[in-house]
Design a protein that fits this description.
Length: about 150
Amino acid sequence: MKRDSKLSGILHVLLHMAEQSESITSERLATAMSTNPAVIRRIMAGLRDEGYVTSEKGHGGGWMLACDLEEVTLRDIYDAVGQPTLLAIGNRTESPGCLVEQAVNAALSSAFADAEALLLSRLGDVTLAALSADFHGRLKQRGGQFDLETAHAS
């Protein structure tokens, strides 16, 4: 089963944006992320609606962060991108007639709810600033050079 990497991808984009002193185009972000600019624009539109980014059209336009990294949590971004499914596993059927499957569903549904609550709580504890600090620590260990176009080179 394919994993949903939407949250991971948008967090990646936001941290790249945090390193830019000027607006950055969807095309540049898409090149850095090995995706299509339309994918970037679609995701960024939801973040713009929530006030986390701004955009300007035309020559010299692009995307800019519009939030304080200390104030925004991973949970905030998760909510802004439409709350993608957290767990890839689920019940075989949601309304089974079989009593055995009802017992299985009850146990699994409870475990799934507990796991999702814990994960959402943890996402609420981590800020974009904490991710940025982790990145800067890793950057310092590697020599302190950062460039969007070469950031993904080994």
